[in-house]
Amino acid sequence: NVSVVLFTSDLRLHDHPPLRAASAGAREVVPLFVRDRAVDAAGFAAPNRLAFLADCLRDLDAGLRERGGRLVVRSGDVVEEVCRVATEAGADEVHLAADVSRYAQQREKRLRHALRAEGVRLHVHDAVTAAVAPGAVTPAGSDHFAVFTPYFRRWTQERSRDVLGAPRAVRVPDGVGSEQLPVYRGVSEGLAAGGERAGRAGLAAWLRHGISAYAERHDDLAGDATSRLSPHLHFGTLSPVEVVQRARTAGGAGAEAFVRQLAWREFHRQVLAARPDAAVADYRPRHDRWRTELTAREDIDAWREGRTGYPVVDAAMRQLRHEGWMHNRGRLLTASFLTKSLYVDWRIGARHFLDLLVDGDVANNQLNWQWVAGTGTDTRPNRVLSPVAQARRFDPDGAYVRRWVPELAGIEGAAVHQPWKLRGPDRAAVGYPDPVVELSDGLARFRRARGLG
Ligand code: FAD
């Protein structure tokens, strides 16, 4: 008997329910990854994520080879390829991790239909949530939680399953052809390395050295004291069940605060599972008449390129371009700046993030953007973050700005946050742009647009 395991956002061997189920009873297994044509066509194949993905696939292949197996890689239409591989291997079942985007839900449906016609069973497992699978808990009268705090209360009450070990051996049937693993270029210079090994090493280091100070330090922009595990959680090179359980074992206030962030990830996933249209349309329409590429081209370009004249915004936007990653506090304040101070459509910002983020994730990115824009699940949709106040609070000494905005590296202390206050010749000497908008004008425009008087 032969099973196919279709890997998608679960590129690991440890704690992998589909692989465990597929290999039960000493079955032969075809570990399969399909480079999906539709993902490229939809513009989701950003170079940073493709490069990280290539690392993940190489590492998965290496891990499988150590166990006597190998990874089969194909490209094309994912459903056609799975059917083709199932036929070549003589498989009678296919295992897959459930996922929440509209595309993933449709993929599962198409796959089920196509495999049924071939007499092959499809088994779908929960492999991307730590505690609560999307839709498994709901509040009275709704199919999902729309507010985080009550969701989190439920989430903490759920006991997650035990962590599964990696398989000792994987037997792959002969005669199933594989393509070469791709190589990618043109990526961010400071891009992190992908793969399960890198993920596990990152998790171990985080539990040893980082997590205990997370509660106090996670918002410190210059301190860079978050786990940076997001790309591994996005590609599933780390299992969220294992991350949560090991964090809980580490214990303390830091671990508690960290686990709460992982619950945010699952909160957004259950929203998107119930409302897949929230990837593109307002979750709670506020009737905004956003500025767009047609009406705010120069402002949008300045934002994308990190030359808005607000140093902390520009620092974060440059970090994004350089590393393919941005600190959460940076994401919050740059998104607030674009949507509220410049009154630009959140979809334009979300698209730019997805073009560069190595952890770019439909659920987390689109729903966090909506949260900041006030069209999502924030219960205070009209709050506006001032980049100057944010900078003073989360980069009090200005070290983060000096790291990413070299034009300002010579300005000491918090003065770096307001270069427009420098005196005439000093200001000209730094060669740094004037602010694209006065914050009070931006705020007034936003309040008018939202009918706040
Ligand atoms: P840590 O602080 O160490 O947190 C641990 C993990 O918890 C993260 O890896 C992530 O999986 C999860 N997490 C933390 N904060 C959030 C949050 N607010 N929402 C959901 N999950 C969270 N995260 C993504 O993974 N992909 C995205 O595309 C993404 N886009 C974002 C866009 C905006 C506008 C904002 C405000 C946030 C976005 N986030 C996104 C959430 C968050 O910023 C990142 O998960 C975090 O910065 C990743 O760094 P870390 O792994 O060091 O996080």
3D structure, described in words:
Keywords: Chromophore, FAD, Flavoprotein. It comes from Streptomyces phaeoluteigriseus. With 453 residues, this protein is of the alpha/beta class. It folds into three domains: 2-127, HUPs (Rossmann fold), CATH 3.40.50.620; 129-160 and 197-274, Alpha Horseshoe (Serine Threonine Protein Phosphatase 5, Tetratricopeptide repeat), CATH 1.25.40; 297-449, DNA Cyclobutane Dipyrimidine Photolyase, subunit A, domain 3. The protein is built from 20 helices and five strands. Strand 4 (93-97), helix 5 and strand 5 form a beta-alpha-beta unit. It starts with a strand and ends with a helix. The structure holds flavin-adenine dinucleotide (FAD). Flavin-adenine dinucleotide binds at residues 218, 226-230, 233-234, 258, 261-262, 264-265, 268, 328, 331-332, 335, 353, 357, 359-361, 364-365, 368-369, 372.
